[in-house]
Design a protein that fits this description.
This protein is an alpha+beta fold. It has helices at about 1-15, 20-25, 70-80, and strands at about 35-40, 45-50, 55-60. This is 39S ribosomal protein L55, mitochondrial.
Length: about 110
């Protein structure tokens, strides 16, 4: 008899608040597949959400109109592809093979 009354006592002592949704499960009759994802806001703060596509991280775009002129130029320069610098070294070739012919044995 005490076991039958126990769940009612637990239900009555439970305090409902906005924080309980973070600890309990989703109360739905149909569960769709949601994947844990991290959203990075433009200021650098992160939020953990459930997203319908399997992604690890979603980065929100930065509004360039809120930046100063120097910061805007730096961001736009970082977006441009970097040019690859090709270094062509010219090696002086002063090798003389005739100088080493005396060390090579000829087959008879």
């Amino acid at each position: 008899m005490l076991l039958k009354q126990l769940p009612q006592v637990v239900q009555q002592l439970r305090c409902l608040s906005s924080a309980t949704t973070a600890v309990t499960r989703l109360h739905r009759s149909v569960y769709c597949r949601l994947y844990p994802t991290v959203v990075v806001q433009p200021d650098g703060s992160t939020i953990n959400i459930r997203y319908h596509e399997p992604r690890k991280i979603i980065k929100l775009p930065l509004d360039l109109s809120t930046l100063s002129d120097s910061e805007r130029k730096a961001r736009l320069e970082a977006r441009k592809p970097r040019k690859k610098v090709k270094i062509m070294e010219e090696v002086e070739d002063n090798f003389n093979a005739k100088k080493y012919m005396k060390y090579i044995k000829k087959k008879k």
